[in-house]
Amino acid sequence: MIQVKVRNIGLDSITGSPIVMLSNIENEDEIFPIWIGVSEAEGIIISQSGVQTPRPLTYDLMKDIIESLGGEVEYVAIVDKKENAYIAEIVIKKDGEEIHIDSRPSDAINIALRFNAPIYLEENVVQKVNLKDIQEASEKQENTQAEKAEKPQEIKTEVIEAEPEVDKELEEFRKMLENIKPEDFAIKPEEKKEE
User: Fold this and answer.
1) Which part of the chain is the BFN domain (predicted)?
2) Contact indicator for 20, 6 with CB cutoff of 8 Å
3) How far, in whole angstroms, is CA 85 from its chain's centroid?
4) Domain count across the chain
5) Is residue 154 part of a domain?
6) Which domain holds residue 53?
7) Taking the model in full, what pTM does it have?
8) Residues 6 or more apart from 66 whose CB is under 8 A from it?
9) DSSP reduced 3-state for 108
């Protein structure tokens, strides 16, 4: 297992679904994206921004319950994938005993952030994206297009090698990363509900 941290929250440009970007602690160019729900994304953003809410939100309430029962979150881990769903676990230490609780990754990450607990994942479970590879492929494509634009007469007279095709998903992911803003998930005053 490798230790990761929450790098940021993004949006899938096709579905509009939030994506939590987990980066390898030892190599931040290795990104592990996991698609999550809107409320779970909001929970992560609220935790990372340090916003204080007048009443405890769900994950703050869960933290209070765990602590009230004498437990402490030791770590969380994304351990498996079954039927296109990631499987995580929250490991709570209570009275010297470890308690493993089945969880969705988004819930486990939210709990880990509130306890400042480490987040781990099985590297072979979550598909890895390397930011350097995406940037290099993008730069190569831009340079090739710039060269073609500068020398239009040579294109007509010379045989040009076919440009390697950039993986469409990686290109869409790169574009999505460029447009990610934390305020995309901010709660607007008119959307807040009284409790």
Assistant:
1) 1-133
2) yes
3) 15
4) 1
5) no
6) 2-130
7) 0.67
8) 72, 73, 92, 111, 115
9) helix
Element (H, E) at 148: helix 131-150
Report the 10 Å Cβ neighbour count for 83.
Answer: 4
| CATH code for the domain of 29 | 3.10.690.10
Helix axes 58-68 and 38-49, enclosed angle (nearest 10): 70
pLDDT at 13: 80
Compute the residue count for the chain: 195
CA atoms within 13 A on the CB side of 146: 6
| 23-51 per-residue burial string, b: 16 or more CB within 10 A, e: under 16 | bbeeeeebbbbbbbeeebbbbbbbbeeee
Residue 188 lies in a domain: no
Among candidate residues 102, 107, 126, the one with its CA nearest the CA of residue 22: 126
Residue 148 lies in a domain: no
